[in-house]
Model the fold of this input.
Amino acid sequence: AQSVTQLDSHVSVSEGTPVLLRCNYSSSYSPSLFWYVQHPNKGLQLLLKYTSAATLVKGINGFEAEFKKSETSFHLTKPSAHMSDAAEYFCVVSGTSGSARQLTFGSGTQLTVLP
Amino acid sequence: DTAVSQTPKYLVTQMGNDKSIKCEQNLGHDTMYWYKQDSKKFLKIMFSYNNKELIINETVPNRFSPKSPDKAHLNLHINSLELGDSAVYFCGTQGSGNTIYFGEGSWLTVV
Done:
């Protein structure tokens, strides 16, 4: 079984300040972890993924995430927020159960960027 | 070329109607999914197909019937639409490396 918890449903930052979106996961095997972003009325875009290579993963648009097995966390960060970063962010864990690949989404974090 | 394409993007229909949403992927992947996103943005898996074979069916009413004519297509047919079926439906495909590629979504509104 696997699960994902996004610790904040809403995060609000000022433009130019750092962004931190928190994600904790639970998995009975070595998971793959992803962050996706969804802009208003748009589809799901992959930001970055962790698949047991480097623990610090760099993604698009200046985002990065660090896989910490001891803390079962995969927090998403960005040094400086931009207005265009305002969107819904989803942490996702992927694993295999039997013959099926299972994708479990977190409940999402709404990021607001203030001018 | 769009990797995963869904049609239609927007669909407004009356209760009781039957409708289909089509999905096509050009990545050559074996595994395809349908996910439903409710009004609170929560995403939940509905179906998973691997090489045209149903792998996962997550407690979805049997009014929903996925059809996979070939590895590149996974269509979703919905019978007797209800108000609660209003949602955004996402098709996805997963290749090696566990990366998931999603379509742009299909916004279904039942009135």
In short: The mean pLDDT of chain A is 91. The CA atoms of residues 25 and 40 of chain A lie 26 Å apart. Chain A touches chain B at residues 32, 34, 36, 38, 41-44, 46, 49, 51, 88, 90, 92, 94, 99-103, 105, 107-108, 110 (CB under 8 Å).
